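[Automated response] Your request has been received and processed.

Submitted sequence:
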Amino acid sequence: MAGISKSLEQKLIAGDATNYDTFELAMEQFANTGGKLIELMVSENFVGASKVASVISTDYAVPVYDVSAHNLELSPVDVVDQKLVKKHKVLPLYKRGDRLLTYSHPSH
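Generated structure:
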């Protein structure tokens, strides 16, 4: 198992987000399909998205931001080139004057 996965495994299990057996099943599927481990674990219901967010929030010492609670229709998506949004995986949330507040996963 790769170093980051082992670290992630320990964090998710310690945070009661999953257990060892479930994580091993997810890793087997991940080995066969590839992609991103966390996305696979959430999409295949190995772990809940809110549990993962809580573990990552603790690990990076940043608060969880529930994007689903944000009115995306009011987001200033037209002020940032969509190529940059996709490349850097950021979500423009607010624009105040000449300042733009964006959201990104803490590991990016």
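Summary generated for your ticket: The chain has two domains: 3-60, 67-103. The first strand starts at residue 90 and ends at 96.
If you did not submit this request, please reply to this message.
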